[in-house]
Specification:
Elements: H1 20-29, H2 31-35, H3 40-47, H4 52-79, H5 83-111, H6 115-119, H7 125-140, H8 143-150, H9 152-168, H10 178-183, H11 188-205, H12 209-234
Helix pairs in contact: 1-12, 4-5, 4-7, 4-8, 4-12, 7-8, 7-12, 8-11, 8-12
């Protein structure tokens, strides 16, 4: 395995379609998007050098974050007039809890935590703020703002998986986080992104200029929180008082 990865080298073509409004969200996020791939946590994870306590901290906080992501997707579903859109966001909420939850369950057995530990977990300041941001946009923003706020999470992880695959090749059998790496390389996520970004585009087309501008801000805010999520695990963040 190479000693380091240049994960900030953007991929020139993606395996899913990026419609014009999604592209404009990326451009609005600008350097913030690339910074989210360049955190020491990400590099240590890719290299298999991330210590188990930091990964455990991340996994436990992420399990609670995914509950809020599911809540936000569920709230969005109630606001969609089209039944197909309703069902898609309901399925997105289920995916966050069930499918990714299986990954957390497996690592819980290895790292020594279970469902009760997750329920009793104190959220970090960064995690709570990110959750509040998504839920607030899902409740109070237009549909395009709500979807823009949740889009960076799956998009960043899927692109991270693809960047790692491009630079690492096959996952070494002895990599301590092989299951995590393999999950976000799954080609089925490309269909997920096609569906998510197509809906983002439709909702943007139906919105006015002010709502589209707020949506780009919501997107960039979530990208910033993604970086902060890596950071709170890297530093094992606690409340200062």
């Amino acid at each position: 395995m190479p000693a380091t990865f240049t994960l900030t080298a953007p991929i020139e073509s993606r395996a899913f379609t990026v419609p014009p409004f999604a592209q404009s969200c990326l451009e609005h996020a600008d350097d913030t998007w690339e910074e989210a791939f360049d955190h020491p946590f990400v590099h240590a994870l890719a290299e298999g050098e991330l210590d188990a306590e930091r990964f455990k901290f991340y996994q436990m906080q992420d399990a609670r974050y995914l509950e809020a992501f599911a809540d936000a997707a569920s709230l969005i579903s109630t606001r969609c007039p089209d039944p197909d859109d309703k069902l898609w966001f309901i399925d997105a909420a289920r995916l966050a809890i069930v499918v990714e939850g299986e990954l957390h369950e497996g690592y819980g057995e290895k790292l020594g935590y279970g469902p009760e530990d997750i329920r009793e977990l104190a959220l970090t300041p960064n995690n709570r703020a990110y959750q509040n941001h998504m839920i607030e946009r899902a409740q109070r923003g237009t549909l395009v703002e709500a979807v823009a706020a949740i889009a960076p999470c799956p998009w960043l992880y899927i692109e991270l998986g693809q960047r790692m695959e491009r630079e690492m090749g096959a996952i070494p059998e002895d990599h301590p986080y092989a299951e995590w790496l393999a999950m976000y390389r799954d080609p089925e996520f490309n269909e997920y992104m096609d569906n998510l970004l197509e809906r983002l585009q439709r909702f943007a087309d139906a919105a006015d200029d002010e709502a589209r501008a707020r949506a780009k801000t919501a997107f960039t805010t979530s990208v910033r929180y993604e970086w902060m999520f890596w950071n709170q695990a890297w530093t094992q963040q606690e409340w200062p008082v």
